[in-house]
C-alpha cells in the first residue's frame, strides 16, 4: 500500500468516527504500527487537517481543510441519504461499503446544520429480504463493463439448464430484488439479461469491444422502452 493511499485511508477512518478513536484502532485499520500511525497523524496535521487528541487519549477529526463545505437544500439531502442507504441495502459488499464511505465523506463536508439533517434524515431504505448474493465478483464485472472487455461465464437458467455464455457486458441493473447484467450475447446474437446470482466462473476472453458499449446500451434501452410502450398500449 502506498503512503498516499494509507493517508487517505486514515482520513476516511477519522471522518467515519463519531468520537475519539484510539491509535491502536487506527493503526489496525490502516495496517501499520502505532509508531507509524503517530507519524501519519502529524503528516495530516501538517497538510492542514485539524485533528484533536494525542497518544493515549484517541483522535478526532475536527476540520478537514481539503474538503470545503458543500451546500445542499433539505430535499437534496433527503435524496442523497435515500439513494446511498438503498445502495447499502441492495449493493454487493464492495458497493455497500462504498456507499457508507460516501455518506461519511458527505457528512465531513457539510455545514453543521446540514450534517445533522444528513445524520437524522426523515427518509431511509430498509430491505428485510436481501437480494441473492452474486455468483461472481461484482467488482470485476463492473470493471469489465468500463473496460469494454468481453467475458465468458457459466450460467444456470430458471429451469436449471446450464450453458456457457460469452457476452459484451453493458450495464448492471437491479430488477425485482435481483441484480442483472444487461449484455449483448455472442451465442444468441441478441441482447440478454443475466441474473448475477446464476452466473459463475467468470473470466475475460481477451477480446475488446471498444467503443461499442454506449451505442449497444442505448439500443438495448430503446428496445426495452419500446417493448414497455407496446405492453402499455395493449
TrEMBL record:
Pfam families: HTH_11, WYL. InterPro entries: CBASS_pafABC_assoc_protein, HTH_11, WH-like_DNA-bd_sf, WH_DNA-bd_sf, WYL_dom. Signal peptide: none annotated. Residues 140-203 form the WYL domain. Gene3D superfamilies: Winged helix-like DNA-binding domain superfamily/Winged helix DNA-binding domain. It comes from Tropicibacter naphthalenivorans. This is HTH domain protein. It comes from the Bacteria. Residues 6-59 form the Helix-turn-helix type domain.
Amino acid at each position: 500500500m502506498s503512503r498516499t493511499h494509507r493517508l487517505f485511508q486514515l482520513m476516511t477512518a477519522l471522518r467515519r468516527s463519531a468520537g475519539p478513536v484510539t491509535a491502536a484502532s487506527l493503526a489496525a485499520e490502516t495496517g501499520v504500527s502505532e509508531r507509524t500511525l503517530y507519524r501519519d497523524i502529524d503528516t495530516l496535521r501538517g497538510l492542514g487537517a485539524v485533528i484533536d487528541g494525542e497518544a493515549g487519549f484517541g483522535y478526532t477529526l475536527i476540520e478537514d481543510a481539503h474538503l470545503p463545505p458543500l451546500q445542499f437544500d433539505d430535499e437534496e439531502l433527503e435524496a442523497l441519504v435515500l439513494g446511498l442507504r438503498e445502495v447499502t441495502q441492495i449493493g454487493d459488499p464492495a458497493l455497500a461499503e462504498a456507499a457508507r464511505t460516501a455518506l461519511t465523506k458527505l457528512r465531513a463536508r457539510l455545514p453543521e446544520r446540514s450534517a445533522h439533517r444528513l445524520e437524522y434524515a426523515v427518509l431511509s431504505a430498509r430491505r428485510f429480504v436481501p437480494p441473492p448474493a452474486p455468483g461472481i465478483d461484482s467488482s470485476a464485472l463492473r470493471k469489465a463493463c468500463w473496460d469494454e472487455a468481453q467475458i465468458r461465464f457459466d450460467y444456470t437458467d430458471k429451469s436449471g439448464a446450464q450453458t456457457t455464455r460469452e457476452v459484451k457486458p453493458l450495464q448492471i441493473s437491479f430488477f425485482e430484488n435481483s441484480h442483472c447484467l444487461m449484455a449483448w450475447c455472442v451465442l444468441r446474437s441478441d441482447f440478454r439479461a443475466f441474473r448475477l446470482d446464476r452466473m459463475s466462473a467468470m473470466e475475460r476472453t481477451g477480446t475488446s469491444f471498444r467503443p461499442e458499449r454506449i451505442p449497444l446500451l442505448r439500443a438495448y434501452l430503446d428496445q426495452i422502452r419500446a417493448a414497455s410502450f407496446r405492453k402499455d398500449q395493449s
